[in-house]
Amino acid sequence: MSILTTQTLSNFSHHQHSTCQCLRPDSDNELRVSLTQLAPKNILPRGSGLSYNDCCFNTDGIVIDTTRLNRFLSFDEATNILVCEPGVTFRDLFLFNPNYIPPVIPGTLYATLAGGVANDVHGKNQSHQGSLGEHIAWLELLIGDKCIVTSPTQHPDLFYATIGGLGLTGIISKIAVKMVKKSHWVCVNKHTVTTLPALLEAFKKQDTDYKVAWLDLLNPFFAIISKAHHVDPADTPQDVGGLERVLLSCPKLPFSLIYRGTHRLFNRIYQNVGAKSSKIMPLWQFNNPLDKLGQWQRAYGPKGLIQFQGLIPDLDAELTLKALFDVIKSHGALPTLAVLKRFEKPGVGLLSFARPGFTLAIDFKHNDAAINAVKAMNDLITSVNGNIYLAKDQQLKPAQFELLYPKHQAFRNVLKHYQSPHHSDLAKRLGLL
Amino acid sequence: MKETWMIIGATSVIAEAFALEMAALKHDVILVGRQEAALNAIASNLTLRHGIDSTIIICDMAKKINPILTVLENTDSTIHLFIACSAMQQNHELNDALIKDMITVNITHTILLIEHYLKKQQTTHQFCFLSSVASMRGRSKNSIYGATKAAIEVYLEGLQHQAIPNTFITIMRLGFIDTKHTFGLPGVFYAAPPSACAKACVKAINKHKRLVTYPFIWRPIMFVIRQLPFFLFRKIN
Fold this sequence. Notes:
The structure holds two protein chains of two kinds. Chain A is α+β, with helices and mostly antiparallel strands. Chain A has 13 helices and 21 strands.
């Protein structure tokens, strides 16, 4: 049996810490034996801990670290279904086979697949492929000492609660994910726009596999739209080397490297440098450029960063976006990285974030101004019937959550029906338990 | 050239990481351990990730080693050994039966296995044994475990002294590695990731190293600890 040890955990944003009893099983059997022997009443599974908020914390409870459960178990070439353990990362899925790619790729490849399911993550291909939950064939869940296989046909209530279920329904012990047979190489084209209507117009056309826009919110409005489509494997090298290497890793710093003046200058330079490259490159390099810089979030210093990610409905999208930018300005927050993507397909989970519309993600240097700005942005998004991403947000209030996630009661009913012993700091904060 | 590595104690995280390294180099592996389900999961993982052949042998080293010897005898191709199996309890956790088991696994069956392996008809013999810095000085907490590792180290030094042609023996003397034995333990100043440890093993094997201390920091630490007069050593917890 694994041993419980007291650990202080953090998350991606590095401005929060939580103390808990932690268990890190090395094998599936060890996990099951530990669950049977401990019979925990207050438990939360955790993958790489790369969420921005408290959804990966269970203060004073038990946290099961699943990072050592990272094995591929079987692959069926007829259905492209790969069965694997929960701690397999998106990076592992890339390394699996040069002819297959993960159906959905989140912002970092170091996130675990079970973490991806628990947050129903999306990628830059959401408008074609939807969110990750659409590509899960079945899940094996451990709830207390019970083991339940769930799929859209077996225990569908539990299946759809687990997709985007924030690890609250049970511990995912096996995942069957439908891989996509495509080359690892994409052809990237970039162009720039200087007005918001032109930016939104560019997203209306579904003319490419991947699309994302980088926004400069510190200078007069400027955006770089990056589009990528897969290229024929015959035209590309088979070796997708480089995925192993991290170019530079940021050490822990006692101060922040992020200041308004220098960042404004950085954005100015990036406007020219970032827009130039149009070429064939590995998909992971296009999708996850920041993974090359290990621990880049440490540049924000000991106070870390906070992120806002909201969904903006199509109706009056331009006005809403302008209002959001005004909120940031009026609060004096420092937006360091802003990214706009397009959603077309609603997520399948009861608490899935994705719905048709635009999604805006903004990193802020963590300070009071940023916290107040995010609160005001949450109010604004709630008033326009948008949505707030639960993997990122730290400021949402229980009443807002219930308005934004209308299936919250169905989710609660599933937790009650299956007597899930799971807790998290986020669940307590939003009154989900 | 394609090789086959037999990994004894394959469900330990270091052994699994080593198997992954060898599989990445396209060598086939034979995984030996007690838990069938865990071995199957590791074998599938190696095959799916690297397209190599991985087979398993279920064997409890505390009881017998015949299943391993049978495979060794009946396999015509060259086999190399990675010996990572060991009982690893602290003195206060042991009773008579567990002490006997520990000596059987860590000494008796390990020596028998190596003796049989060296008699196998093949042109080159190569194996790596995972030892511990605990073998270097007797501490009240884990002296029985340390003694078993020291016994094998002395035995292997004898074999190395014999200088049998085309026989390469590598002893990896390990300090803190990030396993369940060190996870969250107070006083662990640095625990090396198992994957880094496995890479160090591969490097040491390829260079035909006789004895490597890993992580390296343990070499000066143990040098100092070994020089300490007993009255001072006793004061260190």
